[in-house]
Design goal:
Length: about 450
């Protein structure tokens, strides 16, 4: 059995419990659900320290940017936003600005911040969340720039507080980090090695959430199918999924799956339990075996298609989404066309599509990036058009059907219209009377758009 990671429990020392008294905070979150979940934890820690939520970033005494490093464009956006805040910081000397998340784990970015963005007072890394009280204390004592960035993960910390953004839908981390080292990807460097939480801790969180009226739980990990490998479990994810389903919670989803580790047993569990939603996000990245090899994805197009066939055969109503990168170094026109052919084969409900972005320190960044940006943009456009064709067709097929939607409340634009996600993970806008956030509502679909469905509550 492999060595387990050390586990500790979060405890807020008395001296930090009133550090945030009479102070407000505001957090801006970029990137994936891992960051959304971290923001909930950070908010929980801050509120334990006495901070209260500010109504805007301008009002906040403590402003934090929880950042993403997956593509350069995401970083440039954050740096632009920090640039805009310079005046605000210097007009209000008591304000504190901090940056955390994946950008904080990049040496080059931290150097850039030190040199060009002195308005950032604190930077802390993805492995330092639970140390936030001591970090803030150190800053308030010295009022000098404070950097706390561990390059590797330490313990798995349990019993962290959380301020959930919704009372009926919650994210639960089942594992942290990633060991896959796809050649283009920075995540294994910013999030560290795979570490699984113990099943009993995860189940306790799910049961507590359900007992408080929670309806939907989303199990999170960069590669959920590898759950439990570091604990010596053979088929840990399938067993976990079954045990979470057995709690009887209304809805279960999970992100993200990796084709390399995907097991038939987890498809069987999905089929057996109606509270595991029939939607799957299975990133493919490319439809060319040669590109997949250079990406070090560890599977072939044939293997991916066989998984797709098996799933569709066992669960015909399954909705299927993916991630695709275009313009990976050396990708030829023919190889790109193979990606289009794969989209035509899988007829995705939705695909998140990206132009390859070189990330410093990754193996792909050293490969010759020989495709002109113009060509990359043309490929992205063609890919998006192909994806849209199938997602439109798929959405049209729901016309006149009845879907069960978990209501998230009235839409921002029109208070008469509610929105929420169906079991198939379709975003549905609907009308009706006596509807509240957190209700499971039966909706008849009356119209279909590219990315959303329209409907009416069935009485
Ligand atoms: N762990 C998940 C997702 C990680 S990041 C997985 O393996 O699927 C989300 C998506 O961002 C990836 O699936 C990939 O399509 C995209 N991505 C990651 N690195 C990228 C890069 N350097 N350039 C462009 N897109 C990238
Ligand atoms: Fe990145 Fe690959 Fe890990 Fe996903 S599986 S986070 S793409 S290294
Ligand atoms: Fe971005 Fe970090 Fe998630 S790089 S995609 S926030 S793990």
């Amino acid at each position: 059995m492999k060595k387990e990671f050390d586990r500790t429990s979060f405890h807020l020392e008395e001296q930090y419990q009133s550090l945030g008294k009479d102070k407000t905070y505001f957090i801006r979150t970029y990137g994936c659900q891992a960051n959304v979940r971290d923001t909930e934890t950070i908010a929980g820690i801050l509120e334990m320290m006495g901070y209260t939520l500010a109504s805007s970033q301008e009002e906040a005494d403590f402003l934090l940017f929880n950042t993403c490093a997956v593509r350069r464009s995401a970083e440039e956006h954050v740096l632009g936003e920090i640039g805009k805040l310079k005046q605000l910081r210097y007009d209000n000397p008591n304000k504190v600005f901090a940056l955390c998340g994946c950008m904080a784990q990049e040496e080059g970015v931290v150097e850039e911040i030190k040199k060009k963005y002195p308005q950032v007072d604190i930077v802390f890394g993805t492995h330092n969340l639970s140390q936030l009280p001591t970090i803030l204390h150190a800053y308030y004592e010295t009022h000098t720039h404070t950097f706390r960035i561990e390059s590797t993960p330490g313990n798995i910390v349990e019993d962290l507080p959380a301020v959930r953004s919704q009372s009926y839908k919650a994210f639960t981390n089942i594992m942290y980090g990633c060991n896959k080292f796809c050649t283009y990807c920075i995540v294994p460097y910013t999030r560290g090695r795979e570490r699984s939480r113990k099943k009993e801790n995860i189940l306790e969180e799910v049961v507590n959430f359900k007992n408080q009226g929670g309806k939907e739980i989303i199990l999170l990990g960069q590669n959920v199918n590898a759950y439990g490998k570091d604990l010596g479990l053979e088929d840990g994810f399938t067993e976990l999924l079954r045990d979470v389903a057995e709690t009887g919670i209304d809805r279960i989803r999970f992100y993200t799956s990796h084709p390399r580790d995907y097991s038939s047993t987890s498809i069987d569990v999905m089929k057996a339990y109606p509270n595991i939603m029939n939607s799957l996000h299975l990133p493919v990245q490319s439809g060319s075996n040669e590109v997949l090899r250079r990406m070090a994805r560890g599977y072939t197009v044939e293997h991916y298609k066989s998984l797709y066939d098996e799933m569709k055969e066992k669960i015909p109503s399954l909705t299927f989404t993916t991630d695709i990168i275009v313009g990976f170094p050396g990708e030829t026109d023919e190889q790109f066309e193979e990606t289009i052919q794969l989209v035509e084969y899988c007829k995705y409900d939705l695909a998140y599509t990206f132009i390859y972005s070189p990330r410093e320190g990754t193996p792909a960044a050293k490969m010759e990036d020989d495709i002109p940006m113009e060509v990359k943009k043309q490929r992205l456009q063609k890919l998006n058009e192909t994806v849209a064709k199938y997602s439109n067709e798929k959405n049209q097929s729901y016309l006149d059907s009845e879907l069960l939607v978990l209501c998230e409340g009235p839409s921002k634009k029109n208070k008469e219209v509610y929105s929420g996600y169906s079991e198939e993970n379709k975003l549905v806008n609907f009308t009706g009377k006596d509807i509240h956030a957190g209700d499971l509502v039966k909706v008849k679909i009356t119209g279909c758009k590219s990315y959303t469905l329209d409907g009416k509550k069935i009485i």
